[in-house]
Each structure stands twice: as structure tokens, then as C-alpha cells.
Amino acid sequence: MRARVVWTVRAAAGLLTLAGLGHTLWHGVVEPGTALAFGTLIACGELARRDTRAARDEGGDRRPAPLGCAGALAYALLGPNAAQPTHHGALQVVAVVVGAALAGTVPHIALGRGPAADHLARRVLTVAFAAACFQPLYDSGRLGHGIGQGPYLVLYLVFLLGLTALCDAVLAAALAGAGTARPYGALLRDELRARLGIGSAIRATGVVMALGVAVAGLWTLPVLCVPLLLTQMSSHRISAIRTTYRQTITSLARATEIAGCTRPGHSRRVAALSCAVGRELGLSERELTVLEYAALMHDIGQLSLVDPVRSGATAALPAAEARRIAALGGEVARQTGVPAEVAVIVERQADPYREQPVAARIVRAVNAYDDLLGGSRHPGGSLAALEQLRLGTGRDYQPEVVECLARVLARDGRDRVVPVPPG
Question: What gap in Å lies between CA 174 and CA 165, rounded to an integer?
Fold first, then answer.
């Protein structure tokens, strides 16, 4: 079913692309100067976008080319040009956007970091939706007679922006859901949240470009690009800081392995599996980030122990001792400068699950699973470890978390979590 969604989106984008290119080639390019100006803007935006892999790490794959997206939206919503009517139509919009995006993507593809096909398909469908809602009304004259060129036109464009953002979010959530079993509602919620911030700036810039060209002509395009370029640069710097921050926490988490307090790769296995369970439970992207940090640092309290726990396995410790180590971990986490909610999860991971936040419940269950799987108590593998967790659902582990963990393991078809190589 999920694969069918992906192929449906790709097929629809492909058909629209063929229709747009065929219509444009058959009838010729209408107002080639305008098409060239917007095509150049879109191509330059693609050339200036950040590396796709880095963008995906920070959630930026939703908007890897802000300037290109704004230029495409502006062309889709373009009415007059310097008070002179235009007649390019929705199909030419699709053709120009696709051609310019491909031209700007060629250097990235040559370097092996081109955008995903699903993102290009989503771009085509979103731009086609905006153009189909605007261009026929404008070309027929109904937009001018019914709304005019005053504030009502701006309100209509803002309303259309909202619909376009919703369309993009629906498509993005559907495509993201094809690669995971995470609930669609949670995916849609995250995609809608992602349209805030620079996403709002992109859409607003697109409308301002369209209105600016309508009044003053094409020379306004480079002027109106400057604010978005500055915003894009700031966003890249923030993303770089976040990447460095994550790398720092990962290095800090490895201190327990280097000191011999835990088994190699334990914290990273717990973090990866905790995030998978969190997605299964429908946690937001921000909640998943907090969960990842807490899972990486969940054993940091063992650095304060005089006598290390054997193999670093805290799951079998007495409750009082486990809570003491967790409290030490919370104190250490606070001294590292991580967000307060991360430290709270670390220090409450050993509490009875009914008293814990959701993230702490996940960390406790996944940590116990990896401890049990890594020991000699369950030679039967993951099934025996999961059964042990189910026996503790009366007090120690939340039943929903344990069942989500079981589904994640079954879906991935793995008998155990594969250790991450050091470094």
C-alpha cells in the first residue's frame, strides 16, 4: 500500500512533467524573457542549495533549495509583468520549473549528492497545484473582475499559500510514511510544523516576488532575493551548529565505552532503537531529538562509580542502585549543558514507568533489551529478551513501549541490534 502511494505520486509528477514539456514544445514558450528570468532564478537557487545529506540530517530535506522554491512559487503565482498581462499558463510553469530545476541539479548529481526523486516529484506537484489554482482564473479574467488588484488579491494569495503548504505537507507525509511504519498523523503534524520558520519565509518571498514583478517588472527579482539569501545563510549556520552539537554529545556518550563501563556501541544502539520506537509511538521531531540525546547519555552516570557495573548492564541491578546511578547521570548531564529535559529523562530512566515521561520509558525498555541481549542470560536471542521485558510490564516497563519495540524488531527482520563500529 505504501509503495503504491510512492509510485502514484511519482507517476502523477511524471505525467504533469510530460504534459508541461509537450505543451510548451508544441506551442512555444510564451513571453520567453519572463520564463528565462524565472528559470535562471530557479536554477541559481538549486545551485546554491546546501548538501542534501546534511540537510536531511537536520530536517532540511523538506526545503533544500529555498531560493529555487520561492522562484518557482513566484512564477506559478505571476499575474501581470510591469502592469502588462502575461499568458504563460500552468503547463508552461511546470515545464520551466522542471527544466530549470534539472539544470541547476546537474552539478550536484555530478558530485553524487543530487536531490531525491521523491522531492522532485513533490516539487512538481506542489507548483502545479499553485499554478492550477491561480493561472486559469487570471487568464480568464475572473480573478481581476471578482477580486481585483487591491488587498483582496493579497488575501487570496495568502489563502492560496496556505493551501499550497497543506498540499506539500500532505505529499511529504505520504512519501515519508512509505519508508516507515510511523503513524501518518504524526508525520503530517511534523511536516506542518516544518513549514513554519524559513518555510514561511520561502512562501512569503514567492508572493512578494510575484507582486513586485507585477508592479515594477523583472528587475525586482534580484532585489527581493537578498533577504531570503541572508535567511538561508543563517539557517545553514544554525544547522552546522546543531550538527556539531550532536557530534559532541555522541563523543561524550562514548566516554563510558572508552572507560570500560559499557559494551562497545551500546549507547548508539540504544539511541538508534529508541528513536525507532519513538517514531512508532508518534513522537514529534523535536521529541525524537531529545530522546536521541537522552539515549546517548543514559549511562553517563556510570562514570561516577568507584566500582563499575559488570558489562555496564544496569537492567538487572536493584531498583535503588539503578535510581542512584540514574540520578548521578542526570547531574553529569546537567553539567554538560544539554537541555534540562534531556537531564530529566536520564535521571528518571530507572523510576517505575507510571512516574516517567514517555522518553524515559522508551530509554529504559530499550536499554534493558540491549543489556539482556548482550548478556548470557538469554541465549534464545531477542524473543527471550522481549519475553523478559513483558514479564516486567507490571511495574518496570510500559506495555505499549515493549510492544512497539517488538514491532520494530519484527519489521526490520533482525534478531538483534547490529553493533555500530567504533568511530
Answer: 14
